[in-house]
Amino acid sequence: MQSKLVRPRFAYIAPYLKQAKTVAWDYLKDAAEPFRAHGATVNESELRIDYPLGGQVRLYGADNPDALRGIYLDGVVLDEYADMDPRLWAEVVRPALTDRQGWAVFIGTPKGHNAFHEVWERSQSDPDWYSLMLKASESGLISPQELALAKADLSVDQYQQEFECSFDAAIQGAFYVRELARITEEGRIGRIPIEHSLPVYTSWDLGVTDSTAIWFIQMVGKEIRLIDYHEASGTGFDAYAKVLRDKGYLYADHYFPHDVAYKELTTGHSRAETLRGLGIEPLTVPVHNVMDGINATRRLLDRAWIDETRCHRGLEALRQYRREWDDALKDFKQRPLHDWASHGADALRCFAAGHVEPQTARGRERYKGRENEKMSWMAA
Questions:
Q1: Predicted local distance difference test score (pLDDT) of residue 170
Q2: DSSP states of 150-199 as a string?
């Protein structure tokens, strides 16, 4: 109501639209109630308040970034930012603020060293940012008696994350927390050299309406080196083929999930055929039980070295990959939560479930007669 801008637009974004409605819609309607007599209107279907002087506040979900594309914003609140795909900010929300020089507020519970942690770290050194951490032990917002009960009911990690704003507490329900903690303790995350004389394997998770993720992997002795990672959305296979060419690696097998062989109704061709036309010979990984694949990934990580810089997003995906929460049973389900982190995690699971080393009987059979083959830039 006080904005001097022409038709100001403000937004509240939660990880899911349903969550935004549950958390904020009643508050927003209550805040608008005093202005109803002056012409403010409530649009229930679009979760939007229109104010009499042209201002507008609307709720969105980060699960549908297309709903935010092409709009402008004068201010935005991103709530539970740790649960959002960070590209929403970089590719959608930040551009929407640019021409109006709008503001942004990031709110959330720490969940490891992810994009929310990066925002927090930036706020500590950038004078243009304001930051506030409300630890329960310091804020006085929760009574000591209630905190004592919470400590008794929660694990140490749960309490530190939820009440003490700890970015270092383990993410609840995360699949690879122990393996990644061990890798970190043993110094296997850092700058990993690329052996240009050795082949590079790729392993993919294919997105249709969401992201496609690719891991680049080298086998050096008994070590599994995760040397590179690429993720993008909204592009065709020709763009990914160019990424592979530009990296200039000597490629071995390219691992793909089983649905790469499915024919598309629009073209009558499978994605495998499209890839072959681009010089990428897909090796299809058979359908497997998801938990078996996760356990195979755990065994892979026990031998893995990870490049911290080139694989930054993929590493964060592994850290954030977690079980889905069952609100009715108040427990974690066995199946993984499908969010932005699942793309990178599923791509590595594809390799873990499909790769067979030559030292095994099955592996020797696969590699039989290939010892003298010359490996091309795209496929062995």
A1: 67
A2: HHHHS-HHHHHHHTT--SSSPPTTBSSHHHHHHHHHTT-EE-----TTS-
Element (H, E) at 212: strand 212-220
In a domain, 221, yes or no: yes
What does pTM read for this prediction? 0.63
Chain CA centroid to CA 226, Å: 18
How does pLDDT run across 193-216, given as a tens digit for each residue?
Answer: 999 999 999 999 998 667 899 999
- Is residue 219 domain-shared with residue 335, that is, in the same domain? yes
* Domain span at 146: 134-169
Same domain, 165 and 93: no
Calculate ∠ Cα 172-175-286, nearest 5°.
150
- Please name the residue that has the structure tokens 């900010």: 89
Confidence category of residue 177, pLDDT binned at 50, 70, 90: confident
Whether residue 320 is found in the same domain as residue 242: yes
Burial class (CB in 10 A: 0-12, 13-18, 19+), 58: buried
Do the beta carbons of residue 264 and residue 244 sit within 8 Å?
no
Q: pLDDT digit string (tens) for 46-73?
A: 999 999 989 999 999 998 888 888 899 9
Distance CA 150, CA 129 (A): 32
Q: What share of the chain is helix, strand, coil (3-state, %, to 5)?
A: 40, 20, 40
Is residue 378 included in any domain, yes or no?
Answer: no
Distance CA 299, CA 285 (A): 18
From 165-169, 176-180, 230-234, the region with the lowest mean pLDDT: 165-169
Helix residue ranges per DSSP H, 165-311? 177-185, 237-247, 271-277, 290-301
